[in-house]
Each structure stands twice: as structure tokens, then as C-alpha cells.
């Protein structure tokens, strides 16, 4: 801080002059000590000057309401909300989230550094703090077919950007523990900075080696026991509660039951749709749910504020203390935790203020390139008695690999897979480089009947993914996404029911969140009406079925990938 500025603020901090803004009679949460104390908070030039008794040029009497530091989302992908970054940030900020640790690997997998630049540019002037973790795995693994390759050399240009905090989720754990040169070049490039993890279900030795490489966080823990294995190794567990992956209850219940110290835990959303944010909240929802499960509110608030700030080296955030940025949340009480007002740098975030949708480069709206598309290509020949079936599980994005007999029928002298209420067909088509690669498989547990569902949001390579119970509707669904240059679509009995166009990299709508919300409010219930189980978010769950770093089985344009065995099958009927 410049000396002259300090002298001015110091006089206000000492009460010698009125502060610009004072919050009077607040029950202030002191994140460093985890306690509430009734006092005033003085603010000037976007900075907290002090706590105690103050007079201000402008005063806001909170009448005993609760004042907390702005909440921090420790890990999320802005693209997964389907709306432009500025819209998402404004909606989540109204829920009290004032800091976002963003991993733009969705954009990078489609458009490389152009995608990263898009996220940085779109969030430059939003009413919140948006930091970026440099995507580490583009593509996620060598079995993926994506739109770009992000090497350590391409990352160097971003190292001096103050908004780049470190290396994004390192999901290629095999390359880490086996000492891949290209992976360790990236790790070395971010020496001394935060390196986010993505390490579900590693064995003890592998987890030790993974941590040895300098990786310090993970958001992929789905249960308490594994979360504790990571905590014991000095990792910060980012407890995820999003639209598809909901791990908070399992982990927090374990914390409460065992009386576990919570210093090694933070909160994140990872992937959360905007209509859920508007309905349920954002990080404030994580806090509220944790408290409902028995976690003391003070501990939940520390996880959402100062612990996340410390994890990412953001010493000016996460607390109401002199010198910290004046990011503040006013809560009605400590039971319902209703957010009444939110301030960023001392300025109130207005609820009704509309976000300007910024344009993007034309090349980011031309990213769906398919070759040799035909209905015939969706036919799946039965070449064995049993098939590898991708069993989807409600409330999770993990899958089970099952070897089962599946229904079939005779077609022009060939034995072909015949979907029914239990088993449907799934296919993935490469959409970036006109390769024509495509693979088909079998899913169980999803339940779709009488049509098809398709998406160009397909983590992390974002190829076209489609599930259906007949080839005609699957073909029509993919054709529809070619027409819109990406999106979500539902086809029922030979007719497109509705489509949410996502023309920006096949990931984002630029029509405004109202359009996105209106479309999803029609399409999601319709997908459930067509048989998809209530425990699934139809589109988000579908989007993870091609991610080859999550157990146990996935599908890529190259075939069926057995994750635990690191083995690709050309057909689900292969051994």
C-alpha cells in the first residue's frame, strides 16, 4: 500500500476521522478465531479498516444481523453452467460467493488458449474476484480426442498474469505417478504455486506418489474415508456439491460422527447449473446443508472463507480483518442462513442489475465438425454372448462395469443390440477435427425410452454424446446439434422436442440465462417423463459418461474404455 494512502486509511482505522462506510451493530464473524462478536466494521476504498466502534460518512445499521466474509468457491468450471461467465458470476455473487477459483479446461479442450483467453476476458470486470487455474490435462488423457493440446510451453505466457494462481486439476494421475516427462514439465512450471488434484480412488502407494509430486487439493472425494486418506497426506479436500456430483452429505456426516478437525476442508461446486443456483443457492447452500447435518456453523463458515483463501494464497480475502478486501455477506440468522445483502470491495451487488453479454470471437462459434454421419453407423452388432455394460448410478458420476447378457434382435441376417427399458445405446462422435471417429456402447440404469438425448457438453473433450433406444432418434439428435453448433437436445418418437443451443464452443449459450432457464425447465422434466430416473440430472450426468479418468468404464470415440485396466475395447462385446 502506498504510504500516502496508508496515512489516510490509518487515521480512519484509528477513529480519528470518519470512515467512508461503517456497518453498525453487526454480529461479525471473525474467521481467524471462528467466533461471532457484536461490533462495527469500518470500510474505505474497498478495504476493511478495522472492527470495533466507528462512525462513518455513510452508515448501515445491521441491527444485530450477521456479517460474514464473502464466500469462496474453491473449484468450478464456469462453462458447465451453460451461460456466459459474467452471468454466472453475477447470479452466484447474489448468493454470497464473491470469489471463484475457476478451471477453464472445458474451454481449453475445445479451443485451446483461445478458450482460456475467453474466460479471462469475460471475467475481467465482473463484480467478484475470479481467479484461474491453468488447465493441466488438455486432453485429459492420451485416449481422448479433443480440440487442442496444451503443453507446458504454451502455459508459460500466462505465468505472469496475477489472476493465474496455479495448475488446474491434474486428472492424469497415471502420468504423474509414472513420471511422464510432459506432465512433470507442467508440474515444474508451477513450482511454488497451488496444484489442484483430481484423484478418485487411488491406492495407498499411488496416492503417496501423487502427493509427492506437489499436488495439494482434490475435489473428487466421494466418501469420508477416502477424504481422510488425502487429509492425512496434507491435501486440502474441496467438498463438492454440484448438480450431478453430490458428495457433501457423505463427507460431512463422517466429519460430524468422528468429531474430525475441519481445517483440511473447503467447499466447491465444480459443475452447477444456473437454475439450481437460483433455486437453491451456491456456496451458501453448501454451508446450510453442512449445518443441517450437524456441523457447527462457525466451522462451515471457515471452510467457505478463510480456509479456502489460505489454500490458494489469497491472504487479502476470506476474513473481516484490517487490510482485507471488503467482500461481505449479510445473513438474516444462523439457522436458515438467508443471504440479505452482498458487498464486493465495499460496493453492494444489486439484485436486479442485468449482466451485459459480451461478444466472443466468431471462431469460437464454429466448433462442431462431424464426418460421415449416417443412421447406419449407430447400429451395434452383437458379436458375443455378453457385453460390457456401463451401469450408471443415481446421484453419482462414477459407473460400474458389468458383463451381462443384453437384448438383441435379427436384422437383415445380423444379430444387433435391441434397446429396451433396462438397456439403452450410447454413442460418442468426435466433433473437432473431422476424423469421423465414433463408438457405440450399452448403458444400464439411465432409463430413457421412446427417443434420444444428446449433448455437445461431454467432459472433458466435449465430443457429441447421445443415448437413445433407437437409431433413428439418435441420428436425428446428432443432426440437430450439428445445426445449432452444439447444445442439448431431446428427440421423442422421431421429432425434436426441444433444443438448448450452446453455440459458444458447443458449451455456452449467449442468449441469456433466462433462455437457458426456460429451456431447461421444459427439457429436464421431459427427460424424466421419458424414463430417465429422478436421481439423475439428465444432461449433466450424460456429460460425464465419456470422461476416461473416472471409474470404472467410459465411452470415447475410440471405443469402450475400461478405466481401472487402462484398456480400450473396440466393441462392448470384446472380452
TrEMBL record:
GO terms for molecular function: adenine deaminase activity. CDD domains: AdeC. Residues 401-565 form the Adenine deaminase C-terminal domain. Its EC number is 3.5.4.2. GO terms for biological process: adenine catabolic process. Gene3D superfamilies: Metal-dependent hydrolases, Urease, subunit C, domain 1. It comes from the Bacteria. Keywords: Hydrolase, Manganese. InterPro entries: Adenine_deam (IPR006679), Adenine_deam_C (IPR026912), Amidohydro-rel (IPR006680), Metal-dep_hydrolase_composite (IPR011059), Metal_Hydrolase (IPR032466). Residues 66-347 form the Amidohydrolase-related domain. It catalyses: adenine + H2O + H(+) = hypoxanthine + NH4(+). Its cofactor is Mn(2+). Pfam families: Adenine_deam_C (PF13382), Amidohydro_1 (PF01979). Belongs to the metallo-dependent hydrolases superfamily. Adenine deaminase family. This is Adenine deaminase. It comes from Candidatus Blautia faecavium. The gene is ade.
Amino acid at each position: 500500500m502506498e504510504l500516502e494512502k496508508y496515512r489516510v486509511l490509518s487515521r480512519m482505522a484509528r477513529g480519528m476521522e470518519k470512515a467512508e462506510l461503517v456497518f453498525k451493530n453487526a454480529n461479525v464473524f471473525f474467521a481467524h478465531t471462528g467466533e461471532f462478536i457484536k461490533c462495527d466494521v469500518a470500510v474505505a476504498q474497498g478495504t476493511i479498516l478495522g472492527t470495533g466502534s466507528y462512525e462513518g460518512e455513510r452508515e448501515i445499521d445491521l441491527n444485530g444481523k450477521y456479517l460474514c466474509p464473502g464466500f469462496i468457491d474453491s473449484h468450478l468450471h464456469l462453462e458447465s453452467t451453460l451461460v456466459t461467465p459474467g452471468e454466472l458470476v453475477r447470479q452466484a455473487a447474489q448468493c454470497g460467493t464473491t470469489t471463484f477459483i475457476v478451471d477453464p479446461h472445458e474451454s481449453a479442450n475445445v479451443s485451446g488458449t483461445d478458450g482460456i483467453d475467453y474466460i479471462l476476458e469475460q471475467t475481467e470486470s465482473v463484480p467478484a474476484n475470479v481467479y484461474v487455474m491453468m488447465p493441466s490435462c488438455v486432453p485429459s488423457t492420451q485416449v481422448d480426442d479433443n480440440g487442442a493440446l496444451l503443453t507446458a510451453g504454451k502455459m508459460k505466457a500466462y505465468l505472469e498474469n496475477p489472476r493465474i494462481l496455479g495448475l488446474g486439476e491434474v486428472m492424469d494421475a497415471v502420468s504423474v505417478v509414472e513420471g511422464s516427462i510432459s506432465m512433470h514439465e507442467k508440474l515444474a512450471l508451477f513450482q511454488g504455486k497451488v496444484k489442484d488434484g483430481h484423484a478418485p480412488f487411488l491406492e495407498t502407494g499411488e496416492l503417496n506418489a501423487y502427493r509427492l509430486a506437489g499436488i495439494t487439493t482434490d475435489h473428487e472425494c466421494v466418501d469420508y474415508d477416502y477424504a481422510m486418506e488425502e487429509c492425512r497426506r496434507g491435501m486440502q479436500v474441496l467438498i463438492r456439491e454440484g448438480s450431478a456430483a453430490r458428495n457433501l452429505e457423505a463427507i460431512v456426516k463422517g466429519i460430524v460422527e468422528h468429531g474430525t478437525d475441519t481445517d483440511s476442508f473447503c467447499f466447491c461446486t465444480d459443475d452447477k447449473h444456473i437454475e439450481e443456483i437460483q433455486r437453491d443457492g451456491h456456496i451458501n447452500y453448501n454451508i446450510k446443508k453442512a449445518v443441517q447435518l450437524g456441523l457447527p456453523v462457525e466451522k462451515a463458515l471457515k471452510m467457505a472463507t478463510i480456509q479456502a483463501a489460505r489454500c490458494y494464497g489469497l491472504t487479502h480475502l476470506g476474513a473481516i480483518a484490517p487490510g482485507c478486501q471488503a467482500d461481505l455477506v449479510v445473513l438474516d440468522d444462523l439457522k436458515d442462513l438467508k443471504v440479505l445483502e452482498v458487498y464486493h470491495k465495499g460496493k453492494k451487488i444489486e439484485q436486479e442489475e442485468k449482466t451485459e453479454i459480451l461478444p466472443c470471437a466468431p471462431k469460437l462459434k464454429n466448433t462442431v465438425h462431424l464426418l460421415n454421419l449416417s443412421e447406419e453407423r449407430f447400429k451395434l452388432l452383437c458379436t458375443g454372448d455378453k457385453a460390457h455394460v456401463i451401469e450408471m448410478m443415481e446421484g453419482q458420476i462414477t459407473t460400474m462395469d458389468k458383463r451381462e447378457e443384453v437384448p438383441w434382435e435379427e436384422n437383415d441376417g445380423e444379430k444387433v443390440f435391441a434397446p429396451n427399458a433396462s438397456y439403452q445405446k450410447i454413442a460418442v462422435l468426435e466433433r473437432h477435427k473431422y476424423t469421423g471417429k465414433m463408438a457405440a456402447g450399452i448403458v444400464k440404469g439411465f432409463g430413457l425410452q421412446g427417443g434420444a438425448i444428446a449433448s455437445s457438453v461431454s467432459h472433458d473433450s466435449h465430443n457429441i454424446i447421445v443415448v437413445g433406444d433407437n437409431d433413428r432418434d439418435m441420428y436425428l439428435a446428432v443432426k440437430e446439434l450439428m445445426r445449432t453448433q452444439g447444445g442439448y437436445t431431446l428427440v421423442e418418437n422421431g421429432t425434436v422436442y426441444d433444443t438448448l443451443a450452446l453455440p459458444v464452443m458447443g458449451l455456452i449459450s449467449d442468449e441469456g440465462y433466462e433462455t437457458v432457464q426456460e429451456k431447461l425447465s421444459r427439457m429436464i422434466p421431459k427427460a424424466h417423463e421419458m424414463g430417465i430416473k429422478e436421481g439423475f440430472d439428465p444432461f449433466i450426468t450424460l456429460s460425464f459418461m465419456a470422461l476416461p479418468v473416472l471409474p470404472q468404464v467410459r465411452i470415447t470415440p475410440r471405443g469402450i474404455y475400461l478405466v481401472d485396466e487402462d484398456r480400450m475395447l473396440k466393441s462392448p462385446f470384446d472380452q
